[in-house]
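Section 5: illustrative case.
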């Protein structure tokens, strides 16, 4: 009787190379996804911070009387943009406050628009805008 030939139990060089290439491709995809999630997380945190800053500015204006808000407007212009305010918490952050007469100037309603712009994670310009109405006698009177 003849002895059966022993099967070679190892991997060929080609099999090892193919497996290595597959592992490298999967690792690169995972790394790109991880980096994108990190950038999106940072952008989300920045947007939340920007929205809070805008909300705080609106609340600061709400504590003012209607006459004080109306006095912020220039007398010759119904639409006024106040000087930009630097926001150091965000990269190149600038806060703009616009006070406009809302629809009919005789209604004594002001539209206040707060816009915050800054440079995002990849230096892309980002914006957060909040708008509110302020009236002398309240909006429901």
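Designed sequence:
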């Amino acid at each position: 009787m003849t002895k059966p030939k022993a099967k070679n139990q190892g991997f060929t060089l080609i099999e090892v190379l193919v497996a290595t290439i597959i592992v490298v491709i999967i690792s690169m995809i995972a790394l790109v996804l991880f980096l994108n999630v990190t950038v999106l997380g940072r952008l989300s945190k920045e947007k939340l911070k920007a929205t809070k800053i805008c909300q705080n500015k609106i609340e600061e204006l709400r504590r003012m009387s209607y006459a004080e808000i109306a006095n912020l407007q220039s007398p010759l212009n119904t639409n006024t943009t106040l000087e930009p305010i630097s926001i150091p918490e965000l990269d190149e952050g600038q806060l703009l406050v616009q006070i406009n007469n809302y629809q009919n100037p005789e209604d004594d309603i002001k539209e206040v628009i707060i816009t915050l712009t800054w440079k995002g994670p990849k230096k892309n310009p980002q914006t957060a805008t909040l708008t509110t109405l302020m009236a002398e006698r309240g909006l429901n009177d």
